[in-house]
Design brief:
With 208 residues, the protein is of the alpha/beta class. It has a single domain, classed as 3-Layer(aba) Sandwich (Rossmann fold). It has 7 helices and 6 strands, in the order E-H-E-H-E-H-E-H-E-H-H-E-H. Strands 2-1-3-4-5-6 form a 6-stranded parallel sheet, with helices on both faces. Helix 1 packs across helix 6, helix 2 packs parallel to helix 3 and helix 3 packs parallel to helix 4. The longest helix is centred in the middle third of the chain and has 25 residues. It is globular.
């Protein structure tokens, strides 16, 4: 019997390119996958999270929902700043905390960003929020949880295309290749607390 058939995976931000690539790989291996859209699961709304998780108690939570709208702090839009932290940081904490209430043995895979370790002039909210997720993951590991963070570098997604419409797509990481590294985390191949940064230049080395 395939034990993966009994394992349930919840992917937040489920309609994004990375989430959809991961969903397909998981289902191909026999996992039960739920990948709700933003309207189906609002990671900033406790009631929304509780409703989804109560009905689909995950064995593995992939905190994938993210938000980025670059701006200089010199022209700060307070609502935009708040949204970065509400989704990228608070959403990750909310989903994890509520899921742990229903499954204390939850396995956590956080999707970070290479921006967590790189500075970008007008991306301060995004960089800071993703850095917070890396540190939270390390703290959770020390707290006895099974948690890792996998961070993509520049990736060929609709979100990035909207930010950089003229970028050479051949220089970007394929979402499927990134999802294959996330699969290694799902299978438990990385120790808890690990942070893996995945780029087009190193993805094949990580997969070999």
């Amino acid at each position: 019997m395939n034990t993966k058939m009994n394992k349930k995976v919840l992917i937040t931000g489920g309609k994004g390119d990375i989430a959809q690539a991961l969903k397909k790989l998981l289902e191909d291996e026999g996992y039960m996958v739920m990948a709700p859209s933003r309207t189906e699961l609002d990671v900033t709304d406790w009631n929304s999270i509780e409703t989804v998780i109560k009905e689909f108690v995950p064995d593995i939570l992939v905190n994938n929902a993210g938000y980025v709208v670059p701006q200089s702090v010199k022209q700060m839009d307070l609502e935009n700043t708040k949204r970065h932290f509400d989704i990228n940081v608070c959403g990750t904490f909310y989903c994890t905390g509520i899921a742990l209430k229903y499954n204390p043995n939850l396995q956590i895979v956080n999707i970070g960003s290479a921006a967590a370790i790189e500075s970008h002039a007008t991306w301060s909210e995004y960089c800071a929020s993703k850095s917070a997720i890396v540190m939270a993951t390390k703290c959770w590991a020390e707290d006895g949880l099974n948690a890792v963070v996998i961070s993509p570098g520049r990736t060929r997604t609709k979100m990035r295309k909207s930010l950089f419409p003229d970028e050479d797509q051949n220089t970007l990481l394929d979402p499927v290749d990134f999802a294959k590294v996330v699969m290694k985390a799902v299978r438990g191949e990385y120790p808890s607390g690990t942070h893996i940064v995945v780029r087009k230049q190193n993805v094949q080395d990580l997969l070999n």
